[in-house]
Structures are given as C-alpha cells and as structure tokens.
Design brief:
The protein has 567 residues and is mainly alpha-helical. The protein has 19 helices and four strands. Helix 4 runs antiparallel to helix 8, helix 11 packs parallel to helix 16 and helix 12 packs parallel to helix 14.
Length: 567
Amino acid sequence: MSEELASGPKESPPAPRPGPREVWKKGGRLLSVLLAVNVLLLACTLISGGAFNKVAVYDTDVFALLTTMMLLAALWTLFYLLRTARCPDAVPYRDAHAGPIWLRGGLVLFGICTLVMDVFKTGYYSSFFECQSAIKILYPLIQAVFVIIQTYFLWVSAKDCIHAHLDLTRCGLMFTLTTHLAIWMAAVVDESVHQAHSYSSLHSNTSHSRLALDPERAGSQDGGGFCSCNTALCQIFQQGYFYLYPFNIEYSLFASTMLYVMWKNVGRLLPSTHGHGHGHGHSLTRVSLFRETFFAGPILGLILFVVGLAVFIIYEVQVSGEGARKRQALVIYYSFNIICLGLMTLVSLSGSVIYRFDRRAMDHHKNPTRTLDVALLMGAALGQYAISYYSIVAVVVGLPRDLLGGLNLAHALLMIAQHTFQNVFIIESLHRGPPGAEPYDAAPKEPCHGLTFANLDALHTLPACPPTPRLDGPSPADPQEAVAVILAPRGHWRRRCLKDISLFLLLCNVILWIMPAFGARPHFSNTLEVDFYGYSLWAAIVNICLPFGIFYRMHAVSSLLEVYVLS
C-alpha cells in the first residue's frame, strides 16, 4: 500500500512542474529589470545633464521625457485597473503585509501636497508664459493627473498578487516604478540647484553657480531674454512650490516602494489562510492604540519636536547673517541635534535590551515588504554615514579646532551611532511575531508554581506551563463555577516600554526629517568642510548623499509606526 502511494502515477507528475514555472518567473523579472535599468539610465543622463550650464541639455528636454513617461505609465495603470475590474479571477490572492494603512495614508497625504505643488508650479510658469515653452506649463498638469491615478491605483491594488499576463504586468510595474524614481531625481536636482543658487548669492561667488536656475536656462534657450519673476504673485508661487518639494520627493519614494512589493508579488502563490493572521493582528491592536503606553515616550518626543521646530526657525532666520549671529545659529542647531541624537541612541539601545527578555517567537515567514524595509533602512543609512565620515576627517585633520569643530565632530559620531542602533532596534522589531506569539511549545511540561486553579483537572488541559500568565480562580462564594481566568501577563510592561520607545523615535525622526527637507544645510553654513574639500567636491557629496539621509528619516517613521502597532 505504501509502495503504491510512493510510486503512484498521480503523485509524480506535479513534481517537475514548479521547476519551469520558477525559471520563467525569474526570466520575466530579469526582462522587466533590464527595461527599468535602461529607462532609468536614460532619465538620469538627461536630468543630470540638464542641471549644468555647460551641457547642451535643457530642462525642456527633461520635462518632455518625464511627461512622456508619466503618460505611458498612466495609460498602463488604467489598463491594469480595467483588466482586474473585468476579470476578478486575475487576482486570486492578496498579501496582507503589503500596503498597510499607514503607508497608504502617508501616500495620500503626500499626494495631496504634490497636487498643491503642481498648482503653484503651474502658476509660476504661467506668470511669464510669453518666454516659456508650452511643455513647462503642461508638465505640472500631467503630473497632477498622474498623481491622482497612481494614488487610486496603489490604494486599491497595493496588496494584489496578480496571476494574469505576468510578464506584461512586471514590465508595466517596473516602468511605473522607474517613472517615480525619475520624478524623484528631477525634484532632488531642482532642489539642489535652488540650494546652490542660494549659497552662491550669499557668498557672491560666481564660481559656485555651476548649476543653473530654471528661468535662466529657459531664457537662454528661447533666445528672448531672461524670464524674470518680478511680480509678488510669481514670487509666492516660486517659493511655494520649492517648499512643497519634500512632499513630492517622499510621494515618489513611497509609491516606488509599494510598486516594488507589487512587482515581487506578481504570480506569487499564498495559502488560503495567508493575510488573515497578520492582518487580523493589526485590527486587534487598533482597539488599544495610544492606550497601552506609559506616556513618557510621546511626551518627551513632543517636547523635542516642538523645541526642534523652534531651533529650525531660529536657524533659518539667523544663519543668513554674518559673524556672531551665524555662529550662534550653528551652535544652537548642533547642540539640539547632539541632544536629540544622544537620546535616540540610548532609547534604541534600551529597546534592544528589552528584546533580550522578550519571549515572542521570531517570524521567519517570507515577507517581501519586510525584506524591502530592511534593505531600504540599511541602504538609505549609507548616505548619512558617508557625510558623517567626510565630516569626521575634515574636523580631525583640518583647522581650526574650535567650538564649532567640536560640535560638528560630536554630531557626526552620534549620527553614525544613532543610525546603527536604531536600525538594529527596528529590524529586530520587524522580525518579531505579534503579541501572544510566545513559543509555549518549547516550555517544559512541569508543575506550575504560584498558580491558583478553581479546578485541579484544569492543570492537565494545559499544553505546557507558560511562565508569564497567572491563573486566578473564582471566590469561595461561587464554588460551582470551575473556570480559570487568565489575567494579564507580567511581561505587559515590556510592550508598554516598546510602544513608548517607538513613539519617541518616531517623533524624533519626524523633526530630523523636517530640518534638512525644508532647507537646513549646516554642511555649507559651517565652512569647515567647504574649506577642506573645496566647494565642488563637498557639494557633490552632500547633494548625492543627503537625499538618501532624508529618505531614511521618513522610511524610519513608517517602520516605527509598524513597530508601534505590532508591539
């Protein structure tokens, strides 16, 4: 009988089938990745070339490319939505880990701010449309439509595991992801141009202005003189859309991460119960949101957040001055950051220590969202690592050694330590199982000491004796009821501490995102690194590495919110 089952004809054919399917899956992924790499390299070439005066690539060429990419990506997105709506069987599974509500909520928030930015940008370019190319006015309008379509698409389809037209879907998702990355790079370059122009204006040094401002490039291209923004309304539009650039940058990155998870889930097979356990855990914890904390973390985090906003305003007001005012602004800025980073480092270390006493089982299941989160945390931290190490070398080797140099050195060292220990805490938290996932089956089968039972036979019904719960029987006035009530485990304080730690780190990361995202550049205000490396090299280092550091903060906020909900 056993030999017949082992050699039966119905069991042997399915064995070789998964092999070719997996090979073709990898082949489809390779094709889509190659398409994305080539398109992204073309976009990067035009965007980076259009940022310099001496390169004969103009911003109108960049806008034309990005507009074409957005139109193609929007058409494919509409095709995907129509196909899945008419064929519900094309999406047999939905990944519960993908597209959590806080990630989609953040996408909607950044999308709304991006739409406001597009309104300001349209008003800015329309202020002098006589000397502007039509593509510059058309670009923000197309981007607004693209953002609306993408936001709806990711809100309803972020969890899809589609099983129809696999290769076409992979290529479409990768092309859309590449479009978002190209928009992100264009926004980063435009903001860097703006920062370089501000720095060169303050120092009255034309050698620093190798990056061109948008209106100047437009005027020189069209041959009709420079397009000047002289009216008050034009100035409002210009300043408005520059201040809204950080939200557009984060929108593109949020959308890119969600599209990557969708790309990984194309053709993925999930068990029928998948998506209920983890997702159900989220719904259970919503009842206790903002209640199971000691309130120390949120209060201290809010204090640092408010103080950080005040420090940022003081820095922006005084750093443009000369002499003592500029030095005072830098001292205040570095002092606040040193205190904030030091507290974050200690809190992250305490969270890792608490996990040493945590009995929750590690979650080793396949989870593309968690894998991407870990990779982004580790990769984005490299940008701030690079800036910090360059600053350390400049401070230690260069001169003079004064108060600002010491503060800069302490700031760079704490920045490295804070990123390291926060990554350790977040990554370990994401790999922990939900509350109640203690490995009881590994506990020894022995009598439970210090427990009270209403019925002694209830002891034999327990699979093992967990060390944390305490069983309390009914009062003697009701001896008939043989029910054991499990009270709150003694380890409940650990969950409260972890929630406090998560909220504190979340609020600190928000204020540390606001400062550089909205224009704080002590890297140039403190001229130590500029004098040591030269403006060109130091500007290249900061402009390449700082966007990754800014993205790290916002991605850490998203991960810490997940840690808070799952603690």
